[in-house]
Design a protein that fits this description.
single chain, 148 residues, alpha+beta, Immunoglobulin-like, 2 domains, 3-stranded antiparallel sheet, 6 strands
């Protein structure tokens, strides 16, 4: 009985020792690289279209697009997709941004754009509650396929 209890304690101490060594190793491991196009940074600013036209607001935005793929991607266009609260108020007819740049593996590029929206009847607080204006960005790219 006394031998079984000691064996049990040794097993518990052994397992705890393994956990103490292995857990920090797994937490400090390098994160897996994601092989995709992704936005790594973004910013936006809102202001009146002019001093006399505060009912029309301009939202200027920029984002950094990173190529995590193993091949060059030819970015043709970026299209912001607007959130439900602001989409009916967009006044700018074409909100797409023509990029026309090649993005090599591991590189980034900055995409900048703006759009005008109708803020008639909205207070500053109500405008802020509509954020985020851009729900996601649709990237249109051109890829060349090798002939087999």
């Amino acid at each position: 009985m006394h031998l079984n209890r000691n064996l049990f304690y040794y097993i518990i101490v052994f397992i705890a020792g393994i956990l103490v060594v292995l857990v920090p190793l797994t937490l400090s491991a390098e994160p897996a690289t994601v092989e995709e196009l992704r936005i790594t940074e973004s910013s936006a600013a809102i202001g009146a279209l002019s001093e006399n036209a505060t009912d029309q607001q301009v939202c200027s935005y920029s984002f950094v697009l990173y190529n995590g793929r193993g091949q060059t991607v030819n970015i043709f266009m970026a299209e912001p997709v607007f959130s439900e609260g602001i989409s009916d108020r967009i006044l700018t007819e074409n909100t797409s941004v023509t990029v026309s740049e090649s993005l090599t593996p591991g590189s980034s590029l900055v995409v900048e754009g703006s759009f005008v929206f109708d803020a008639n009847g909205l207070t500053k607080e109500e405008i802020v509650k509509l954020e985020p204006f851009i729900e996601h960005v649709r990237i249109i790219s051109v890829e060349t396929l090798d002939h087999l």
